[in-house]
Specification:
Order of helices and strands: HEHEHEHEEHHHEEEHEHEHEEE
Number of strands: 13
CATH architecture of the domain at 116-268: 3-Layer(aba) Sandwich
Strand content: 15-25%
CATH superfamily of the domain at 116-268: Periplasmic binding protein-like II
Number of helices: 10
Largest sheet: 6 strands, mixed
Mean pLDDT: 89
Helix content: 40-55%
Distance between the termini: 66 Å
CATH class of the domain at 116-268: Alpha Beta
Radius of gyration: 26 Å
Length: about 270
């Protein structure tokens, strides 16, 4: 009997050692897989829009980047095979990537690289930002903003807007300057579903339609100007444009260089592959 018990104890100990060995092997495999994924990511070339939040995220991760003029160009790079992947806005990915879109052969990876907020940028010290805040607050309260968001499929990202009263600056008022010249000039890039052209070559999108609403409240016309995204602050300061309204992420750098509105949409950066 004692001999039998000793044999059983030895068998249990052997099985325990095997289990520990298997567990260690599995852990080692997971670690190796993670290291392999990280190595693969650093070997790939990621197309990013110059001066964008996507470029900032990719740079922080130490990825090899190919800076291009716009997020639309970044998708073209991946589609053409000249870049391995792209880093773009989640909202744009939803409108441009996958079945039934302009790029059915591309796909969005599951991982969100960050969490960010969209806002409108004006010249530093400009009272136009406060005016836009007042229009967005009114449009949110009366349902117009949500209606437009649903039109372009961004309603889940829309943020609540607080009501606010606008008071023009006593001197150097951008609002008065825009009203006197009779035109609100909006700096954009092609960026569906925020700013893009319809079949009649007219600019539409959630941001474009909100900019039209602001121009209407100002009593002026609206003009959309395609800009070099990396030069957006210079375009503002030189008064070539009056605001940047193009799904712009409110980074620390942007908020330091511009007078920004309240955040109106949530977003994230994602990786696009073929």
């Amino acid at each position: 009997m004692k001999k039998f018990l000793a044999m059983m104890l030895a068998l249990v100990m052997a099985l325990s050692l095997m289990a520990c060995g298997n567990s260690q092997t599995a852990n080692d495999k997971n670690a190796n897989d993670a290291d392999s994924d990280a190595d693969t990511q650093t070997e790939l070339t990621y197309a990013v829009e110059a001066g964008s939040a996507g470029e900032e995220v990719a740079t922080e991760k130490g990825w090899k980047i190919n800076s291009v003029a716009s997020q639309a160009d970044a998708l073209m790079e991946v589609s053409a095979g000249t870049s391995d992947a792209a880093v773009i806005d989640l909202l744009m990915a939803g409108a441009m990537v996958g079945e039934g879109t302009s790029y059915p052969d591309l796909k969005v990876t599951d991982e969100k690289l960050n969490s960010e907020l969209y806002g409108v940028g004006c010249r530093k010290g400009s009272d136009l930002a406060a005016f836009i805040n007042s229009v967005m607050g009114e449009a949110y309260a009366d349902g117009k903003m949500l209606e437009l968001a649903k039109t372009y499929g961004v309603q889940e990202s829309l943020l609540e807007q607080s009501a606010s009263e606008f008071t023009a600056a006593e001197s150097d008022s951008d609002v008065k300057y825009i009203q006197e010249k009779g035109k609100l000039v909006v700096g954009i890039t092609e960026f569906a579903p925020m700013d893009y052209k319809d079949e009649n070559d007219q600019w539409i999108g959630f941001d474009a339609d909100m900019a039209k609403l602001v121009a209407e409240k100002l009593g002026v016309e609206v003009e959309f100007v395609v800009i070099d995204w990396d030069m957006k602050v210079n375009e503002l300061d030189s008064k070539n444009i009056d605001c940047v309204w193009n799904g712009m992420t409110l980074t620390d750098g942007v908020q330091a260089a511009m007078e920004c509105t309240n955040a109106y949409c949530e977003n994230a950066q994602v990786v696009i592959t073929k």
